[in-house]
Write a structure and sequence with these properties.
With 286 residues, the protein is an alpha/beta fold. It has 2 domains: 22-60, no CATH class; 61-280, 2-enoyl-CoA Hydratase, Chain A, domain 1. The protein is 36% helix and 17% strand. Strands 3, 4, 5, 6, 7, 8, 9 and 10 form an 8-stranded mixed sheet that branches. It is globular and about 45 Å long.
Length: 286
């Protein structure tokens, strides 16, 4: 009897959700949580801020097309070599299906988007790697597209600019993937011998064979803040040298302090910085 009285008088201190509530009532993707500081904000505001967290300035990964929108003059980009397709030379199980899936998801034919465009009115050729496609790994088509883009820039006698984002060489293509390190580097050497500018911009992450080849041999090497840049993994290096590495090891700031970068540039200043460099190295003609 007494228990019943107390039960009736006890007030609920929590809210209940009706059983018929549907998850679809809340639109997906409307909010984004920062993986660094855990700040939660409107996704549309994050996009307006060039995908940089307004609280801790964490630089989110960008798609290749998002990068085009913030670096080149509006409506001037013309892509090239979109017809090239990846094959499965080693008959690696499931490889073709994964390529097809990533292509449908990203709208790209491979992990790099190449093309011509204007940067504050000046002609440039760009290559933009996209980590959303096979983690930006470098296969034969990625190497071929970058090489063709470099050769196009050399032919037009204009600067070549690359944004790197990669997990390294693509194991599903074996030595054919590793060959791209040499092929792209040779094309860049020929570009340099003609006296043309090459700017490399390393974004998070740039690792493996990509970091050991074209990503690190720019006339000017830039990077976004706190980007992971390196060849082998941290644990592999620590086990090899038998030493504990610094906390900021393989970050863009660490590389800058040790002379491996020319500057670390915030995304909000990237277009202005690159445009200034192109202007300084041009002969005055657009």
């Amino acid at each position: 009897m007494i228990r019943d009285i107390f039960s009736r008088n006890r007030k609920k201190k929590y809210a209940t959700i009706p059983n018929d509530a549907s998850k679809s009532d809340v639109p997906e993707g409307i909010m984004t949580k920062c993986p660094e500081c855990k700040h939660i904000g409107l996704t549309k505001d994050l996009l307006k801020n060039k995908k940089v967290c307004p609280t801790c300035e964490h630089h989110y990964k960008m798609t290749a097309y998002e990068r085009v929108d913030i670096i080149l003059d509006e409506g001037t980009f013309v892509s090239m070599d979109d017809h090239l397709g990846t094959v499965n030379p080693l008959n690696f199980p499931g490889y073709t299906d994964k390529i097809k899936s990533d292509s449908e998801k990203t709208g790209l034919n491979e992990a790099v988007l190449t093309g011509n465009g204007l940067l504050d009115g000046r002609k440039v050729v760009v290559a933009i790697m996209d980590a959303h496609f096979r983690m930006g790994s470098m296969g034969s088509v990625v190497g071929e597209k970058i090489t063709r883009a470099i050769e196009d820039a050399t032919k037009q006698r204009i600067p070549f600019i690359i944004f790197t984002a990669s997990g390294g060489a693509r194991m599903q293509e074996g030595v054919l993937s590793l060959m791209q390190m040499a092929k792209t580097s040779v094309a860049l050497k020929r570009h340099s011998e003609k006296g043309h500018l090459f700017i490399s911009i390393l974004t998070h992450p740039t690792t493996g064979g990509v970091s050991a080849s074209f990503a690190s041999i720019g006339d000017i090497n830039l990077a976004e803040p706190k980007a992971l840049i390196g060849f082998a993994g941290r644990r592999v290096i620590e086990q090899t040298v038998r030493e504990k590495l610094p906390e900021n090891f393989q970050t863009s700031e660490f590389l800058l302090a040790h002379g491996q970068l020319d500057a670390v540039v915030h995304r909000s200043s990237m277009k202005e910085t690159v445009s200034t460099l192109v202007k300084l190295h041009s002969k005055g003609d657009k």
